[in-house]
Amino acid sequence: MAELVFREDAYARACRARVVASTPAGIELDRTVFYPTGGGQPGDSGLLVRADGARVRIANAVKGEGPDAVLHLPAPGEALPAVGEEVEAALDWDRRYRHMRFHTALHLLCAVVPAPVTGGQVAEDKARLDFDIEMDRLVKETIEENLNRLVAEGHAVRPRWITEAELDARPELVRTMSVQPPRGQGAVRVLEIEGVDLQPCGGTHVAGTREVGRLAVVRIRSEGARNRRVTLGFA
Questions:
Q1: Range of the domain at 135
Q2: Is the same domain home to 200 and 154?
Q3: How far apart are CA 203 and CA 185, in angstroms?
């Protein structure tokens, strides 16, 4: 099992690691700062820096076989490091940090819109959640005002773990209708925005809501009989 550095420290931009598998399908490391695509958040991109200074461009990171395996996908034409080689795994930090800000913003949106979530996606320039709710309950100006109030209040944001039994006792913590948090490890990672939101999440987030920055509701539109999509951007 790889050590997932991002799981406890989303601000780690690089780490030393050893290559444990290396094929055109992906490079696996014994530890990594790269978040793999999942939970609506894109996988990270960046570099693997070899001992001689040569750089291997990583275009994406995805989940591999096994619970904590991460495949670092090299850009086309990149030379592969050898198994056993030591490298530095370094993120495209600006891109990752935007993902962190937007992912945290979606948790705030969950708190502002009291409805089941049917889907969501984070990108570099926007993020969205889909809700099972009537359209007339979504007022752009009200959502923006409430989001930016929570941002300005500076609530602490922190990941922590609860037992599966605790989650079973509090089913209201699971806001997504179609996706359930992974089980079988005895504990579930949750993301807490102090006094605002608590729900299972494996993604990366900022440490306080002020880091999110001012938000704008870019669009609200219907995506089906009751499915409503709210898209956010940075103001």
A1: 96-234
A2: yes
A3: 17
C-alpha to C-alpha distance for 135 and 101, rounded to whole angstroms: 26
The radius of gyration of the chain from alpha carbons, rounded to an integer in Å, stands at 19
For the chain, the distance separating the N- and C-terminal CA atoms, rounded to the nearest angstrom, is 40
62 and 81 fall within a common domain:
yes
For residue 88 the two structure tokens come to 């530095």
Domain final residue, candidates 91, 113, 147: 91
CA gap 81, 69 in Å, rounded: 17
- Which of 91, 106, 141 is the last residue in one of the domains? 91
- Cα 214 to Cα 120, 146, 210: the distances in Å are 20, 11, 8
- Please give the chain's pLDDT, 235 residues, in tens: 899 999 999 999 999 999 999 998 999 999 999 999 999 999 999 999 999 999 999 999 999 998 899 999 999 999 999 999 999 999 999 999 999 999 999 999 999 999 999 999 999 999 999 999 999 999 999 999 999 999 999 999 999 999 999 998 998 898 886 667 776 677 999 999 999 999 999 999 999 999 999 999 999 999 988 899 999 999 9
- Tell how far CA 5 is from the center of its chain: 14
- Domain count across the chain: 2
pTM of the model: 0.95
Distance CA 211, CA 172 (A): 27
- Looking at the fold, whether 168 and 105 belong to one and the same domain comes out as yes
CATH number, residue 219: 3.30.980.10
